[in-house]
Amino acid sequence: xxxxxxxxxxxxxxxxAVLVVAAPASAHDQIVSSTPAADEQLTxxxxxxxxxxxxxxxxxxxxxxxxxxxxxxxxxxxVAGAPTVAADTVTVPLKPGMPNGAYDVTWKVVSSDxxxxxxEYSFSIAAAEEPTPSTAPSESAQPTAPASTQAPAESAExxxxxxxxxxxxGVVLLxxxxxxxxxxxxxxxx
Length: 190
Fold this sequence. Notes:
single chain, 190 residues, alpha+beta, Immunoglobulin-like, 2 domains, 4-stranded antiparallel β-sheet, 2 helices, 27% helix, rod-shaped
């Protein structure tokens, strides 16, 4: 009976060790800030979108793992070039002349652990209307302050099942079962 308890305690310790070691390995890099920020209302159109992540990203030589779109309410994508990855930052240039309205930013990157991760967030532009030539500008008009440029972005991150964690748990469970069977077989012989 003592050996069975020892074997079960060993199996529990092994499962706990696998969980502790595998948990950090299965975590993907998280977005920590964006410019423009999530749900930010800008007074001028941005010239680029910059996303900053919790760790350095993998930059594939053909750039196939990185993608970003900035789409307005009519479905027009305002991205003007390929995204560039520099350490933990992804930057994409935007076309000039973005009109007032809401914009959805969708992104896909390759985390430092080699797994793709993606998400999305929104911002809007509400630039002041240009005065018509027949209207004189108001002397009491206050200049608008620049919008905040660094705020955490809310992202709907999609992740695949942590396959290495599941395999590790299966191996530990199999070892625990074998240990219990061996101990029970030895006990029967005695």
